[in-house]
Structure formats: C-alpha cells, structure tokens
TrEMBL record:
Pfam families: 2OG-FeII_Oxy_3 (PF13640). Residues 18-201 form the Prolyl 4-hydroxylase alpha subunit domain. Its cofactor is L-ascorbate. The keyword Repeat does not apply. Keywords: Dioxygenase, Oxidoreductase, Vitamin C. InterPro entries: HIF_prolyl_hydroxylases (IPR051559), Pro_4_hyd_alph (IPR006620), Pro_4_hyd_alph_FE2OG_OXY (IPR044862). It comes from Vogesella fluminis. The lineage of its organism: Bacteria, Pseudomonadati, Pseudomonadota, Betaproteobacteria, Neisseriales. This is Prolyl 4-hydroxylase alpha subunit domain-containing protein.
C-alpha cells in the first residue's frame, strides 16, 4: 500500500455514502510524473487513436460527442510507469472489494489526450447491454493546470442533472464514482489535457436483452 497517499478506509466510507470521491495527490509524485512522461512520449510517437463511443458493432467515432484520443494501457503494459500505476490501482480495487463487496475483478484503462478545444459531452459509463463496468477512475497528469484552462470533469449528482460538482484536471487528483449512477462530461479544454481513465469491472451478469 506504500504507493497510495491517502486513508483508504476514509475513501471507502465516502464512496459508500456518496457514490463518488475526489482524492488530491492520490499517488506519489514520481508515479504521476512518470505517467505524464510516458503519455507524452506515446503521443509524440503517434500511437494514440481517435476515441469512439458505443461498443462492439455500434462503436463509432463521433467528434460532436467526444474529441479526445486514447491509448489503452494494455498496449504499453511493459512500461515501468504503467506497471506502477496498475499496482497502485490494484491496491485500491482490493480495498474496495473488502469494504463494499462490489466484486471487482479487473481494471481496463487508457491514456486520454484532449487537444486544445476538445470535450466529451454528457454520458454514463455503463453500456446498456453490458453491466461489467462498475467504478469509474480518472487520474489526472497535468501539472499546474490553470483554472481558466477549463477541462474540468462535471459530475452530475442528481437524476435530473441539475446539481453538479466540477473537478479540475490537476496532476495527482484521482476521481472515483459509480459508473451506472453518475452522468458526467468533460468541459472544453483550452490547452492540452492529459489523464488516465479507466473502469473497474466485475464479471458480466446475464442481461435481459
């Protein structure tokens, strides 16, 4: 657990009560800096691809909905920075399973780069025909992010999407929330925005569709 810089019990308690939590300086500065370097290196090498919406045969790139580019971490799993990140996130998964009995079995995640002007319109993270995604994770890599640069994640706290909280994409901040409960969006970024976005998954149940 040495990779984590926060009280896991307190975080799990907040997740249980609220369904979401924001953790500043969640991982070590070294892990954060190494991830940022790896992300930018892969970006410069042209390894990212335009992000899509939907899944399986319904997957499509729709720039009017989201304008970021992604690189899945399993494609670069041998990088030391990625290994350190995955180990830290595994610590969180084990603790959440002990405290909340969510039955999480794996984490799927990707680097996400939002070029200047990019955004992601309001959405839920769980697919209609697949209930495996259970807990969303967003870890930010931007050092010294100015408030006027936008790019916040807007997390809607009620079913009518009238109440919300905005979280700036400052390096080291980790956001966790239940994937099937919270609508959210990424506000337009006025400069390049970097993150690692992922989903803790449980085993898929038999769906009625």
């Amino acid at each position: 657990m040495f990779r984590l810089q926060f009280d896991l019990d307190r975080i799990i308690g907040t997740l249980e009560r609220e369904g979401w939590v924001v953790i500043p300086n969640a991982l070590s500065a070294t892990i954060t800096a190494n991830l940022r370097t790896a992300c930018l290196d892969m970006w410069r090498q042209g390894l990212f691809h335009e992000a899509a919406t939907g899944r399986a045969s319904g997957q499509a790139c729709r720039a009017e909905i989201r304008a970021d580019s992604v690189l899945w971490l399993d494609q670069v799993a041998a990088l030391p920075a990625v290994q350190a990140y995955n180990a830290a996130m595994d610590d969180i998964m084990q603790a959440v399973n002990r405290g909340l009995y969510l039955g999480l079995v794996e984490l799927e995640s990707h680097f996400a780069v939002y070029p200047e002007g990019a955004f992601y319109k309001k959405h839920l993270d769980r697919f209609r025909d697949d209930d495996a995604r259970t807990l969303t994770t967003v870890f930010y890599l931007n050092e010294g992010w100015p408030q006027q640069a936008g790019g916040q994640i807007r997390l809607y706290l009620d079913a009518d999407c009238r109440e919300f909280v905005d979280v700036g994409p400052e390096a080291g901040t980790l956001v966790l929330f239940l994937a099937d409960r919270f609508w959210h969006e990424v506000l337009p970024a006025r400069q390049q925005r970097l993150s690692v976005t992922g989903w803790y998954r449980r085993r898929r149940s038999s769906m009625p569709w």
